[in-house]
Amino acid sequence: EEVLLKVSGLTKHYPIKKGIFTRQVGAVKAVDNVSFSVKRGETLGIVGESGCGKSTTARLVIRLLKETAGSIRFEGRELTALSAGELRTVRRDMQMIFQDPYASLNPRWTVERTLLEPMLVYGIGSKGEQRDRVQELLTHVGLNPSYAKRYPHEFSGGQRQRIGIARALVLHPKLIIADEPVSALDISIQAQVINLLQDLQEQYRLTYLFISHDLSVVRHISDRVAVMYLGQIVELAETEKLFATPLHPYTEALMSAVPDVQGAKKERIILRGDVPSPANPPAGCAFHTRCPRCMDICKTEAPPLKEAAPGQLAACHLYA
Ligand code: SF4
Ligand code: MG
Hints:
Helix content is about 30%, strand content about 25%. It is an alpha/beta fold. The protein has a single domain (about 5-15, about 25-95, about 170-320), classed as Rossmann fold (3-Layer(aba) Sandwich). The chain is globular, with a radius of gyration of 21 Å. The chain binds iron/sulfur cluster and magnesium ion. Iron/sulfur cluster binds near residues 249 and 298.
């Protein structure tokens, strides 16, 4: 399978400055040496608690943020080296779906205006073709084409997210980055939107980078899943392997909080303490302050992310 997106050593540090000469005294390590790849047509889920760096990773990939270090290759092209003009062309192929569709839609624009905008910006199609495309998109996302003349406030949350999805599809993108796309929706609506994303993926052979704090949502949609903690990927595996046999103690703890499909009782692993500040992450394994299986080596040496079982990477000294 062809790799569409390859991220290597991606890092985003925010300098912490102090004093009148704004001397840099440290850095918030929002994303720290993250590597993964996504194959064409695949869905890679990124899961973790808020503040773990998953949204920052998404924003770095789509170039809303500039990295401190690392490489992002999209269809073999190095994105971090592109000029603004070159980036504009690539950005057509990468679109984002946001958590809050209401905040990301212009309240003064009709749905039609919102969906026309990308075509106007890139100068695509005649007036007639543009209008046809709007009608077609609304149908594809399960909305009545007659809604084109309505405004965002006239829609429910689920309908607004369908408009957000339609907008992401206007230019026939290859990669869609979805950042918590259903977290703001009622549970009953979440499944509908996830199913829509899956149908569209099949229809258009889309590739998804799907970010969520919700393990069950990620499990449902992802082919593979990366688990993040304090700016780093701690485990990366095929979805079924990750859920059947989580290897990293942090993944294990996350999973223990989710009731399993059979409703079987699992022993809930309660982690001690809070997530440390990314401005001052623990030495060695960043999880060692909370890990129930911490060993001496964990306090001084950072474990590399490497194959711990077939098809399953973990950053943990238990698998050295
Ligand atoms: Fe726990 Fe050590 Fe593994 Fe870190 S490296 S997750 S502290 S066992
Ligand atoms: Mg899939």
